[in-house]
Fold these 4 entries.
Entry 1:
Amino acid sequence: MKEYFKGISKIKYEKGSDPMTFRYYNPSEKLGDKTMEEHLRFAVAYWHTFGHTGADMFGSAVNKRPWFEYSDPLDASLAKADAAFEFMSKLGVKYFCAHDRDLYPEQETLRKTNEGLDKVIDHIKGLMKGTGIKMLWGTANLFSHPRYVHGAASSCNANAFAFAGAQVKKMLEITKELGGENYVFWGGREGYDTLLNTDMKLERDNMARFYRMAIDYAKEIGFKGQFLIEPKPKEPTKHQYDFDVQTALEFLRAYGLDGYFKFNIEANHATLATHTFQHELRVARISGKMGSIDANMGDMLLGWDTDQFPTNVYDTTLAMYEVLKNGGIAPGGLNFDAHVRRGSFEDRDLFYAHIAGMDAFALGLRIAKDLLDDKVFEKFIEERYSSYNNGIGAKIVSQKVTLKDLEEYVLDMKDAGNVSSRQEMLENILNRYMFKKQ
């Protein structure tokens, strides 16, 4: 088999200064009852890593990957698969994530597309068997093709809805065939730009119908994987129906679907929704809906989805804090839904970028574990809300008081007795844990 990443061997954990090694990610090291590999469950994103050309809205492609050179779509797809599994093997990542169109491009009919896709899947099954690499999740690309200009499940065009359903059917079959542990619904264009031409109720109703069809078909074929919805607030549409975790949760509950789905939470989408990454993870966790994570970050000075590799250790620490509080992320994982910057166009930059992201999350895991072991914030929060443990607070929690009771309780009270939130102190404590010698 052709070697695509020549001169690069298996990435190792070392305490040196070589950027082609891990400094903090030691996959076999145990933290608590799990190894770092088990805690983090890293995955490589097929689309950004092996399909991104480096083009943006102001410039053409700059990435000249060897697998881009094939003119025949089947040859190109098989070469991409070979390169992907070589890359993941050398990086030491055990999972990948993919859209259907990442694996094989769209042809003139769905029938021809599926025929080519089947050939690629047979090849990938062999690569998976030979390397032990697994599929974390599969999904369908329901946003790139012109037919989805008005959306997919929420489209005003029933034919577009039908195409979307056909793609999901096929990709559910493929995800099951490849042993995928999850299936993600990412509604890239499921929203609107103006309400002047939008029947919002019909669009939301149709999305719910679409999800029910997927649930029914998964049962029919025996797919046991976890269903995930990936919230995104905007871009390309002005408003998307799965704006954030709370909005998507409301949608699921309104249609009686909340028992079937959890969330795939992306850091960059959280900031686009004007939330922190930790906020979205916290809302999902306390709702019992934390499913998986798209590990990236955005540029706070840019108002769009830049999908950069995560290097902000504050973010990774607070993210892993939520994951540990959740008891782990399995059967989800941390998928690097990120691409190298346009100026990082050499093939080896793919390694540097993933190493940076993996080390950032590994360091975040270490710090979060220390914070939780010492119960730094838990102790403070417990004390801050202690007024609800007895007296009037306990009666409020147990719903044993009325508004009349509350009035009687405070009628002659001169001061509520608030105490400081100590925000700056807590932020300084976080800094001390962050910057102690790792």
Entry 2:
Amino acid sequence: MRTRALVTAATLTALAAGSLVVPLAVAGPATAEPSQQREDFNGDGYTDVAIGVPKANGKAGAVVVTYGSASGVSPSRSARITQDTAGVPGTAEAGDQFGENVTSGDVNHDGYADLIAGAPHEKVDGKPDGSLSIIWGGAKGLTGGGIALVSPTSDDRNFGQGASFSDLDGDGTAQLQVVSGRHFWWYSESTPKGDGSDVALPLEDDFLPEDVQLDGVAAGHFSGSSGNDFVLYGKRGDGDGDYLATFRGGAGDIGHSHSVLSDGGTEVRSAAAGDIDKDGWTDLVTGEPAGGQEAGAVTVWWGAPGGLNTGREHVVYDQTSPGVPGTGESGDSFGADVSVRDVTGDGYADIAVGVPAEVVRGSNAGTVVLLKGSADGVGTTGAQTFHQETTGVPGTGEDADRFGASVHFADINNNGKADLFAGAGGEDIGTVADAGAVWVLRGASSGLTTDSITSFNGSDFGFTGNTGLSFGEVFDH
């Protein structure tokens, strides 16, 4: 693709690319009592967003956190975190891929969300590969150091491949869950020590196929159980198809009651949860970018008292479905990433779908599709699509930009309407190839809007040597 300069939005024009290095201690002021928001690291009542940058520093990895505010997000209110940051456990080494996945939750129950970052390829002496770092939140942001967890058993691999934070047993207090290549673990509600003395409880091995390779986890109130249920997804060891199963939470034997949703079908690459039809049950959306006759598809699995897929039949959506914009073509990767949250403030969760190889004006530049929730499920009207050729979106769509390779909803200005973060890991910045960039589109009662849109890239956060950085490929899930 051609090299080009990314045009930043007016709200960022005062920031010269490469001129801003933001230390860990920089954070927005804590002007309110500590918030219980899952994604609020500094307790100011605004949602913060973590961006994983696993290809930074020779793939040692990094995480950028943008702090929310009434005016949105900006590199001037952010933190850049690596395993060489003071107080962060571990040592940044090439290939660790720290930030390969990121999420958040109040792990130590002090009222501030903590950053949870996986490094599934980290080498740990005497342990299988992989670690999970927890960086403590506080009134000054992510400045309080942290701990690292490693696999409890020797037969594991890629510990920290995924993580979630939810109340599995239904007692009102959430706990940490971790996915490795071979196992699913959860911790007690007490604060992990990080010294190896913590006992992580495994999902019984006979609940999972022997050859499954787990990739991720999503949690939600999918059923009538007292706690949150969880969904595990991955692929079979021979690489032939997917594995997707739901496990029941609640008091007692967590995960004992489970149901396989898909085994051997099109591989699930992403998953997100939210109440799309506002019936009180969490729904699950899975992205299958090789589905839909290799053009890509998303599947909506409806929550119900009996659990996912026990009430309304699941529905597959692709670009041949009524109301879904675009034309499905082989290799589009519709569903490469998905996110679910209420954009319009009407109480119905909406779905963002990344389509990173969609053809835009003759090039495979990529796009993002917004599908709106309704009482009937996914609405057939009001869908939107955005790309770099959309009026008001900075930049120019070019081949292999991969706009929409990652998507994430977050209400960054606390107005009750989710805003969309869209990443393009293949975006060139000037002559720097595949540096990557992120755009933030605001939510409104009519849907997503380009009003007050912002965009930024790795150089705005002090990264140098950004060829192949692919900034924006990983968001908090």
Entry 3:
Amino acid sequence: MLAAFLLSFAVIFIAEMGDKTQLVAMMFALRYRWWVVLGAITAATTAVHVLSVAIGHYLGAALPTHLLGIIAGVMFVFFGLWTLRGDKLSDEEASRTEKATAPAFFVVFSAFLLAELGDKTMLATITLAADHDWVGVWIGSTLGMVVADGLAIVVGAVAGKHLPERIIQIAAAALFLLFGAYMLLENFFPTAPVAVIAAVAIAIVAVVAAGLRALPERLRPAVLRPEPVAPVAPAELDGTVTDGSTQPRI
């Protein structure tokens, strides 16, 4: 149970970093008291992950362990690519969050419940519960998500809406790809030494990263493209300011 708890906590915490529901948590933290938002997130996450572990537990009972390991590896690779692609709030979701007028707890609870259904953290929880102790997965995945969204609430309440999203997104995607590659290699080559499997998994992720960097800029994921440079206004180039005076550039 402890191993399932620790694994689930780590995986879901990583999955939630930079996710759409984390952005929702930050927006709600700008409107409501932090403890109301955190309480509603905890309740919604607990409910969704009960469903997730139930699906994963009964699915796991019907499938052989070897096949489950391969499926889990493929899913983690999928999570890595999904994370690399990025996740943004649509205009409709942002507007719905900003205009909500119902009691705060129920607004946040319903928003998170709907946002999590079918989200990658729910899929990750199902995958973990299929091959690990379901109680440990349920507790670990719930706490992992609550802690990750708690960080978003702190940022939203203290530092505004901006996260170092680029670094978080790349790191989370790399870890998911690494987990996926390791699990696939472990199940396809069960007799290989752990150190060899880990080294090959790291090499695969490095090759994938190099391949993505080698693509033309327009074909790369947005997070791997160079950050746009803000254009310099002509007035700034010659030191002229808007009131007609001039200042020497330092």
Entry 4:
Amino acid sequence: MNSAPFQSKTGATPHALPSLRGVLPASHTQVMALDLAGGRAVHAGTAMARLQQAVVAADRGSVDSWLGLGSRLAKRGAQLPSRLREMPSFDGDLLDSTQSHGDVVVQVAGPDPSTVSEAVEQLMESADGWRVRWQVEGLRAENRVEGGRGLARNPFHFTEGFGNPDDVRGITDRALVRDDQGEPDWAVGGSYQVVRIVRFATELWDKDSVREQERIIGRRRDGRWLDGTPTDEQPSFAADPNGKATPLDSHVRLAAPDRRNLPPLVRRSYSYDRGNGDSGLIFSCFQRDLAKGFEVVQKRLAGEAMAKYMLTTGGGYFFVPPPGDAWIDALFRS
């Protein structure tokens, strides 16, 4: 692993999660939501142990592999983290139930599609008792590190990732559950993952001029700020109260109105293209607290200028447990 561990107050040092190794995610991924095929809590625990073994076996070499727990496991007797619940429908969402939620999410990431596909096939061969609920493949175009941050180009031709921390310590500080949050002991060092399948109206978007697109986003395509602030610095929106330079309804301004105090989350998003015009973003982020991370941002984005170009159709809330398998007994103990 290429990142430092998170240090809890009790001295526990969970190793970095596969989803948060380093500042640059792998270039390709597959995200799968799985449901248990049947029954009682004892069966669920056995099936979970087998799935975890398969996920750990896949997590080697150039492949990162992890699973996240869905809130529906509570119906099977699981003792879940206190903040885990089913992802609600936000303003403008049109969630497809067949493409949303799931008992668990499994994500495999690697350097190329064939490596990822091979790892997924081997993993699923050992995933007895599970069936695929939904699945999507993604890639990070122009995946690279600049200024210590992992950047990529999204389907709207804009570079994103500037809001992430530029070091692993900053990543773990935003993303990993601490032991003073009131969560179960086994959950310390884990992370809440949000997955959102966001369909982009790229044909409509491309009819706008680049200048108009930049005003909708609030940055230049290459990441430069509209008010002239250098890319690696944070602008003061307070100095532009009427939105003359950066419109008040632009994406970046609504998402983080105080650029010097960014939301406590880490983005790990990928583009997807299923054909037939169904393309967009697999938005994914990790945080200690859903309400203080993703949800506070998502609620601020209601009414943004970019809303008419996007439609969230699926995804879910999940909890990525810390490394090891001690959490399985805690999850299903009576």
